[in-house]
Amino acid sequence: MGPQIVLIMLVVSGLFVAWSTGTNDAANCIGVPVGANIISFKRAVLLMAIFVFLGAMLQGQNVMETTGSGIVITTTTTYEEYHQTSAPSSIMADMDSFFPEERMSDLAMMVALFAAGISVVVATYSGIPLSASQSIVASVAGAGIGIVGMQPDFFRYEVLLRIFGSWIISPLLTLAIAFLSYYILSKIGQRVKDVLKWERTLASLVIASSCYFAFAQGANAFGAGLGPLTVRFPEMITIIAAVGGIMVGLGALTFGHKVTKAVGKDITQLDYAGALAAQFAAGMGLLVFANMGIPVSSSQAIVGAVVGVGLVKGAAMINKKKIIRICAGWVITPIFAGGLAVGLYKMLAFVL
Amino acid sequence: MMGFWGDAKKIEILVLEFCEEVEKCLKTSFNAMEVYIEKGETEKVIELSTTSHNAETNADKIRRKIIKYLLEGSLLPNTRADFMNLLEYIDDIADDAESLLDSFILPSLDLKEVDKEQIKEIMVKLSKQYELLKEGIAILFSDTNQAIEKVGMLEKLEKEIDEIEEKLIRKIGSRQDISIAEKLVYREFISKIADIGDVIENTGDQLEIMIAVRKG
Predict the structure, then answer these.
(1) Does A43 touch chain B if contact means CB atoms closer than 8 Å?
(2) HEC letters along A235-263
(3) Contact A248/A49 with Cβ under 8 angstroms?
(4) ipTM entry
(5) Do the chains contact at A193 and B143, CB–CB below 8 Å?
(6) Looking at residue A61, what is its pLDDT?
(7) Pair A118, A136: CB distance under 8 Å
C-alpha cells in the first residue's frame, strides 16, 4: 500500500468519522426537540447540518488544533516547551525515527480516525449517546502508543488530563445549569396566563437553542473529529469543514434515530420547558470548553443536562438503568477505541 | 415564530364558531323536546328539529375544517392532539343532543307523563353547564387560570343534574298507573338528557388536562 493509498484512506477515515459523528453526536442536538415532539426528525436533521457546518467553520479551529497535534508530542521543540528541559539525544533520535515529518504519520491518523469511527458506530447501534471526541482523543493516544510504545515523554499528559477532567466536569456543570434553568422556567410556567402562547414561545426557543447547540457541536466535537485531517491538510480547512458538515448531516439522517430517541425519550420525560433548559445548558457547557480549546463530549453535556431537568421533578423521574448503561458506554468506548487503535496500528505497520 | 406552526388565531376563531353551532344544536334540541312533551309532534317541533340537525351539520363542517388545518401543521404537534380530542368531546355533545330527537320524536314516543318542570330544570342546568364550558374554551386562548375556574363549576351543576335525574327515575318507577315498557321509555329519556351533563363535564376534564400538562 503506497503513501497515496494511505492518504486516501486517511481522508476516507476522516469522512467516516464525520458520518459517525452525525449518527451519534449530532443526534444529541436534535434528540430533545424531536423527543418533545416539537419538530420532525427530518427537519431537525436539516437544521442541525447547517449549524454544525457553521460552528466548525467559525469556531472549530481551537479544538481542531488540540486533537490534531496537541496530545502526542511530535517535535523536539514541542518536547522542550512542554517538559521545560532540553531533549536528550535518545529522545531526539526517537523523535526523528517516529515522527520524521514532525507530525503523526498518515497511517497513524488514519488508524486513529478509523478506530474512533468504529467505536462510535458500535455505540450508536447500541443506542448509547456517545461522543466522537471521546473516541478520537483515546484513539489518537492509542495510535501514539502504537508508534512510540509506553513512553510517557511523548505524551502531553496535562492536555489529556484536562480533557478527561472535562469529561467529568462537563456533565456535572450542564446538570447544574439545566436544573436551575428548568426550575426557573417551571416557576414562570405556573404563573403565565396564556399557556398556549407560552408553549409556542418555549418551542421556538428550543428550536433556536438546538441550532445554537448544533453550532457549539460543530465547534467542539465536529472540530475534534476533523482535527487530524486539518493537521495534514492545513490549507484545506474550509473544504474539510464543508464536506464534513454534509457527512454529519447524512450520518444523522441515515442512522441517528436510535440515539435521538435515547436522548429525547429514554432518560426522562421532557416537556417544552425541560427541552429548552436541557438544550441551553448543554450548549453553554460546550461553548465554554470549546473556547478553552478542550474537546468535550456533547453526549455527556446533553445527558447531564437532561438528567438535571429530570431531577427537578425528583430522582424517580430518571431512568437509572439507562443512565448506568450510558455511563458504562462512556468508560468502555475510549478504552475500546484506544485499544483498537494500538492493535490496528501495530498490525498495519507490521504488514506495510 | 407563530407562523412556523400555522395560524393559531385562525384555529381559535374556528373553535369558537364550532362551540356556537354546538350550542345552537343543544338549545334547539331542548326547545324541540319541550314543545314535543307538551303538545306532541307539531310543525314547531319539526322546525326546531330541522334547525338542530342543521346546526349539528354546520358544526361538523367547522370541525372538519379545523382538523384540516391541524393536519396541515397548525399548532404544535402535542397541542394538535389535545385539540383534536377536545373537538371530539364537544362534538359528542352535539351528537347526543341530536340523538335525543332521533330517539324519541322520530318514533313518536309518548312522553306526556314525564314531570315537565323537572325536565325543564335539567335542560336549564345543562344549558348553563355548556355556557360555562364555552366560556372556558374561549378564555383558554388568553387566560388559562380563569378557564380552569369556569370548568371547575361544571361538576357542581353535573351533580345537581344527577340528583334530579335520580329523583325523576324513582318517581316514574314508583308509579303504578303506567306499564313497565312505558317506565323504561321514560327512564331512557331522562337518562339520555342527564347524560349530556356527563359529556359536558368530561369535556371540561379534557380542558383541565390540556392546561395541567402545560403549566410546568
Answers:
(1) no
(2) HHHHHHHHHHHHHHHHHHHHHCHHHHHHH
(3) yes
(4) 0.70
(5) yes
(6) 58
(7) no
C-alpha–C-alpha distance, residues A23 and A25, integer Å:
7
CA distance A280 to A208: 10
Residue of A nearest to B146 (CA): A193
- pLDDT number for residue A1: 53
Among B77, B78, B143, the residue with its CB nearest the CB of A194 is B143
Contact by Cβ (8 Å): A286, A216: yes
pLDDT range class, residue B26, cuts 50, 70, 90 = very high
- Read off the pLDDT of each residue in A67-96 and give the average, rounded to a whole number: 79
Sorted by sequence, the CB contacts under 8 Å of residue A26 that are 6+ apart come out as: A45, A48, A49, A52, A214, A217, A222, A248, A249, A251, A252, A256
Q: What letter represents residue A9's amino acid?
A: M
pTM over 0.80: no
Q: Give the whole-angstrom CA distance, residue A225 versus residue A67.
A: 8
Would you state the cell numbers that stand for residue A40, as one nine-digit string? Answer: 420532525
**CA-closest candidate to residue A106, choices A23, A187, A5, A240:** A5
Grid cell listed for B146? 380563569
Strand partners, A155: A72
Across the interface, do B77 and A38 touch by the CB < 8 Å criterion?
yes
CA A327 to chain centroid: 15
Beta bridge partners of A72: A155
Tell me: pLDDT of B3 over 70: no
- Interface mutation vs chain B, best among A184, A196, A210, A270, most B CBs within 10 Å: A196
Nearest to B98 by CA among B62, B63, B55: B55
Contacts of B8 in chain A (CB under 8 A): 196, 200
Distance separating alpha carbons of residues A305 and A297, to the nearest angstrom: 12
CA distance B95 to chain A (A): 28
Chain-chain contact of B76 with A186 (C-beta, under 8 angstroms): no
The pLDDT value given to residue B183: 92
State how far the Cα of A58 lies from the Cα of A68, in Å rounded to an integer. 17
DSSP-based three-state secondary structure for A37 = coil
Using CB atoms within 10 Å of the CB of residue A60, give its burial: 0 to 12 exposed, 13 to 18 middle, 19+ buried: buried
Residue B173 CA neighbour count, 13 Å, CB half: 9
Task: Report the largest interatomic distance among the alpha carbons of chain B, rounded to a whole angstrom.
Answer: 68
What is the structure's pLDDT at A56?
A: 75
**What pLDDT score does A174 carry?**
93
Q: Cα–chain-centroid distance for residue A203?
A: 26
Across residues B60-78, what is the average pLDDT? 88
Summarize pLDDT for B82-126 with one digit per residue, the tens: 899 999 999 999 999 999 998 888 888 888 888 999 999 999 999
Q: Is A155 helix (H, G, I), strand (E, B) or coil?
A: strand
